[in-house]
Amino acid sequence: MSDLLERLRGRGWRMTSQRRVVAEVLDGDHVHLTADEVHARAVERLPEISRATVYNALGELVSLGEVIEVSTDGRAKRYDPNAHHPHQHLVCSSCGTVRDVHPTGNPLADLPATERFGFTVAAVEVTYRGLCPSCA
Amino acid sequence: MSDLLERLRGRGWRMTSQRRVVAEVLDGDHVHLTADEVHARAVERLPEISRATVYNALGELVSLGEVIEVSTDGRAKRYDPNAHHPHQHLVCSSCGTVRDVHPTGNPLADLPATERFGFTVAAVEVTYRGLCPSCA
DNA sequence: TTCTTGACTTGGACTCTGTCCATCGTAGGA
DNA sequence: TCCTACGATGGACAGAGTCCAAGTCAAGAA
User: Which Gene3D superfamilies match (chains A, B) (predicted)?
Assistant: First the structure.
């Protein structure tokens, strides 16, 4: 739970009420919120918090590797606090719901050297798309 | 080459000079352009073409299944004319270059039923990220 | 505890990407 | 050649995100 807060403090992240609230919002429910949704929830606890501050805090959490940025559609990025367990995403094409999934296999190994064109491949993202039970 | 133009005409796509230019831009170099880049190239051939028209044409080409929309970053979508050969993408994290790649294996088969949460999974996108030779 | 200061927050302006709409123009069939 | 429904135009608008100058404050020093 507030492991996250402890880790951040331990890493010298200057703790302000705004940053605390953003971290708590992400640490709470295990969902994939957009920046605006994070802002909306943060405002419930700290009415004066500004959009810019939420964007700043999210950007820093991403840089620190505590949160993953997910662009499932061309719209707003979503923020995934489950950064310490490798996983992929399953997205509903209709309502946009995102679920973490754990496929078997290692997609990195599936890309032969001849298909790497000299790139240094560092990561792979897999996005499964379909319809969730409610939308099907 | 202008297979694309033929196919579109054959499918009853009303051919205007604007639509022709957009199709030709995509059909030419085999790169992954943003809508603005498509517009810039279209303007070279047809100076009066408007942004809205380019967006309309791209949207229709996507609906027709002739072009694939790719969101590799949270920024502008890119349009991939290589729609008739299944492939995945390799993206340079520094300069944004996108290359088509053909991994082995079938990632759809790697998602066990227990990890599908009742979703009807229809498609899977794999994005490899790293640094291209010029940026490394 | 109080002071100090550099880092953080604010809100408004701005950019970028994309969509919408009323009006005008034209491809292609009769 | 003429008609007309479909397409193009461009300007306004919207959503997501960034930037900046000015004000505020966390946390270390004294």
Answer: 3.30.1490.190, Winged helix-like DNA-binding domain superfamily/Winged helix DNA-binding domain
The beta strands (E) that lie in chain B are given as 33-34, 68-70, 78-80, 88-92, 98-101, 120-131
B97-124, pLDDT tens digit by residue?
899 999 998 899 999 999 999 999 999 9
Which residue positions of B form the known binding site?
92, 95, 132, 135
Which nucleotides of chain D have an atom under 7 angstroms from any protein CB? Answer: 6-11, 15-20, 25-27
Is the CATH number 3.40.190.10 carried by domain B3-80? no
Q: Does A74 touch chain B (CB under 8 A)?
A: yes
Q: Which of B87, B111, B132, B135 is best to mutate for the A interface (most A CBs within 10 A)?
A: B111
State the pLDDT confidence band at A32, using cuts at 50, 70 and 90. very high
Angle at B59 between CA B53 and CA B60, to 5 degrees: 90
Domain with CATH 3.30.1490 in chain B: 88-130
Q: In this structure, are strands B33-34 and B78-80 parallel, antiparallel, or unpaired?
A: antiparallel
Numbered ranges of CATH 1.10.10.10 in chain B = 3-80
Note the CATH architecture for domain A88-130: 2-Layer Sandwich (3.30)
